[in-house]
Write a structure and sequence with these properties.
This protein is mostly helical. It folds into two domains: 30 residues; 71 residues. The chain contains four helices and no strands. The protein is flat and about 55 Å long.
Length: 102
């Protein structure tokens, strides 16, 4: 079942990239190599921070909760909070690195 979901998401991403390739090419042609490297590093660092906060921080917090329904609700809240916060910070960093292009 997980493989089907992965295949469908991959097909959608490839389709969107093909559909918007000209726009993507124009946007990235405005950036220099240093900016592209900074943006890629920003994404990698953000993914690592999100993983650490959700996996280790989230599991630590919910380890004290014994009620399964409450445990699930707290996990969802932690995931939403971490993703919202990190994506907001990432958008500001990427905008600053690209000088408003992205």
């Amino acid at each position: 079942m997980n493989y089907i979901f992965l295949i469908i998401v991959s097909i959608i991403l490839v389709f969107l990239m093909i559909k918007n390739r000209q726009e993507i090419k124009e946007t990235y042609s405005k950036l220099n190599a240093k900016q592209i490297t900074g943006i890629i590093l920003s994404y990698i660092i953000t993914i690592a921070v999100v993983f650490i906060l959700i996996y280790y921080g989230g599991n630590y917090v919910v380890s004290f909760i014994t009620v399964p329904a409450l445990n699930f609700a707290v996990k969802v809240i932690i995931i939403l909070f971490v993703l919202t916060t990190c994506v907001g910070i990432l958008n500001k960093v990427v905008s600053k690195i690209s000088k408003g292009i992205l």
